[in-house]
Amino acid sequence: MVTARAITDQTFGAWVIKCNPHKTDLAPMVASGNAHEHWCVADNYRSRLMVPGQPVLFWVSSHPRRGIWGAGTLTGTPVSGPQWKVATDIVLFDEPILASSIQSIAALSTLEVFRSPQLSNPSWVDASAWAVIRQMLPSMM
Q1: Tens digit of each residue's pLDDT (9 = 90 or more) over 60-77
Q2: What confidence tens digit (pLDDT) does each residue in 14-59 have?
Q3: How far apart are CA 39 and CA 22, in angstroms?
Q4: How is residue 93 annotated by DSSP?
Q5: What distance, in Å, lies between the first and last C-alpha atoms of the chain?
Q6: Closest to 99 measured CA to CA, from 87, 112, 81, 85
Q7: How many CB atoms lie within 10 A of CB 96?
Q8: C-alpha span between 19 and 58 (Å, rounded)
Q9: 135: closest CA among 101, 110, 89, 85?
Q10: pTM above 0.85, yes or no
Q11: How far apart are the C-alpha atoms of 24 and 67, rounded to whole Å?
Q12: H or E segment at 40?
């Protein structure tokens, strides 16, 4: 039996690229104000839905200030290789939007990054969650 995929043009809001600071050094990114330009993604149906121009959120996990540290767009489609990678343009915020603030909003308390934090990149938020999160982003976005 084939099940319907949750991500469609109607349900998609934004991709979420997760960064574990125990594996990827945040300091150079914070110093530059931008996340790395390329991020590993799983070779799966989600990565095949990624196209340039789609919004992307930068989620820092395993950190005392875990949450959304930046936002931007995809600048390419995933490229296959030993590790699939996707190109991004992500600007970091002066202050992250902390997970505790996000979870306090009922419409966001069940985001995939909370329900299944161990999933590989990319995660995603649906259109209704993206509408709420967009209002939380700094005015530079």
Answers
A1: 998 999 999 999 999 999
A2: 999 999 999 999 999 999 999 999 999 999 999 999 999 999 999 9
A3: 15
A4: E
A5: 42
A6: 112
A7: 18
A8: 7
A9: 101
A10: yes
A11: 15
A12: strand 38-40
